[in-house]
Amino acid sequence: MSSENDLLVARLTQGDAKAIEYLFKQYYARLTLFANRFVNDIDAAEEIVSDIFLMLWENGHEINFTGSISSYLFKSVQNKCLNYLKHQKIENLYVNYLEKQHLLEEVILTAESPYLEKEMVQQINIALESLPEKCREIFMMSRFDHMKYKDIAKQLDLSPKTVERQISIALDKLRRLLKHVSCLLW
């Protein structure tokens, strides 16, 4: 290990804020680009890298650095990206399951009053309108026109992977925006 690395490790284990700031300035952009290669979502990549720096700030004094700090940071980002992708896959499977079982429609149909149903429809429309234009277009083609990803990709001159990612982004944003709507039902 280099003496600069040793000095940084010593400063981190002492909780030195300047050491974190230095590492953030040195690595944030590179780590974000690295994370984006995994998750293909710059917002998620930024959040992942920010989480790593927060963890480093909170627990840096407890970490046993056996190699370089650079290696530690890149490996931490890689692991967090893989966990993020696993979580996304599980969420997508759950939403697909609900759609196949027509449970989403049942939830909407079980609204106790016309007011609640109208409120839910309004909230869903607001959430859909808040999506980026291309993302909304792809989502609506998939969910409302019942088009397959490959057909959407062909029609919009995109790769099927891009269509899949846009659907995933839309579902994630809609889930977050509509969290409170499900509370109205229960």
In brief, what are we looking at here?
The chain is an all-alpha fold. Helices cover 82% and strands 0% of the residues.
Can you walk me through this structure?
It is a single chain. The chain has 186 residues and is mainly α. It folds into two domains: 3-92, Rna Polymerase Sigma Factor, Chain: A, CATH 1.10.1740.10; 102-185, Winged helix-like DNA-binding domain superfamily/Winged helix DNA-binding domain (Arc Repressor Mutant, subunit A, Orthogonal Bundle), CATH 1.10.10.10. It has helices spanning 3-13, 17-39, 42-59, 69-100, 103-109, 114-130, 133-143, 149-156, 160-177, 179-185. Helix 2 (17-39) packs across helix 4 and helix 3 crosses helix 4. The mean pLDDT is 79.
Task: List strands and helices in order, with pairings.
Blueprint: H1 3-13, H2 17-39, H3 42-59, H4 69-100, H5 103-109, H6 114-130, H7 133-143, H8 149-156, H9 160-177, H10 179-185
Helix pairs in contact: 2-3, 2-4, 3-4, 7-9, 8-9
